[in-house]
Design brief:
By secondary structure, the chain is of the alpha+beta class. About 40% of the residues lie in helices and about 15% in strands. Strand 5 and strand 6 form a beta hairpin. Helix 2 runs antiparallel to helix 3, helix 2 runs parallel beside helix 4 and helix 3 runs antiparallel to helix 4. The protein is elongated, with a radius of gyration of 21 Å.
């Protein structure tokens, strides 16, 4: 009888940097091949997780659930699943077309994810300044079932691009602030920016939302559009 590998997680752990490098390279390409590259990488990693899962099951059957080899194998499966989830996020990004932007405008789009990189729907995404004041001139956006949002800004004629740094903020469907970026978003005229945003599990609401946001924080309540 063949003995399952006693270090099933070694290969998966050692390839983490390779996965990140492959994703960064594919997404930087920003062409039609990017989505295919990421999709293929996802298939390869899913196959590897299937192998790790079978190895973990064999180790448990042979040595028991509490054996260090079984525990290590199950940890490798968890790490593999986390990698597949990250690749799925990148796959969605690669497959998302850039929105059309006004010549003097800009767009911010992306996806919001909850725990374990599950899409966070019905979140309200908006922009604030360094004092956390809502910048209503740029509007807001609700996330859809895939967590996708789009803020597409076309300034009035003659109005320059914002000079002050902006910060992305998010409230949930209960009008509870659940995210405030610590790194500024500086839009560039005529450009689009894609961002993946992961909410922290069990995060305590970050104070109170701006009054204007509280009024529209539950999608469909007011019928407003971002």
């Amino acid at each position: 009888m063949n003995t399952p590998s006693q270090n099933p997680g070694g290969a998966a752990a050692s390839s983490a940097d390779q996965v990140n490098s492959a994703l960064n390279t594919a997404l930087a390409a920003s062409d039609s091949s990017a989505a295919t590259t990421v999709a293929n990488l996802k298939l390869v990693r899913q196959a590897r997780v299937s192998l790790l899962t079978r190895t973990a099951a064999a180790l448990q059957a042979q040595y028991g659930a509490n054996d260090p080899r079984t525990i290590a194998a199950e940890a490798a499966v968890s790490a593999g699943n986390a990698t597949v989830a990250r690749i799925a996020v990148a796959s969605q990004q690669a497959a998302t077309p850039a929105p059309t932007v006004a010549a003097a405008g800009w767009a911010l789009h992306g996806r919001v994810y909850a725990t374990q990189l599950q899409p966070a729907a019905q979140q309200t995404v908006y922009l604030v300044d360094a004092t956390k004041a809502y910048q209503s001139q740029y509007g807001f956006a609700y996330t859809d079932a895939t967590g996708y949002f789009l803020i597409n800004y076309a300034p009035p004629a003659g109005q320059p691009a914002p000079a002050a740094p902006l910060y992305i903020a998010i409230v949930n469907a209960k009008a509870e602030p659940v995210y405030l970026a610590t790194v500024a978003f500086q839009p560039a005229t005529g450009s689009t920016t894609y961002q993946n945003i992961a909410l922290t599990a069990g995060e305590t609401p970050l104070g109170d939302p701006p009054a204007e946001i509280r009024k529209i924080a539950i999608p469909g309540r007011s019928g407003a559009a971002g």
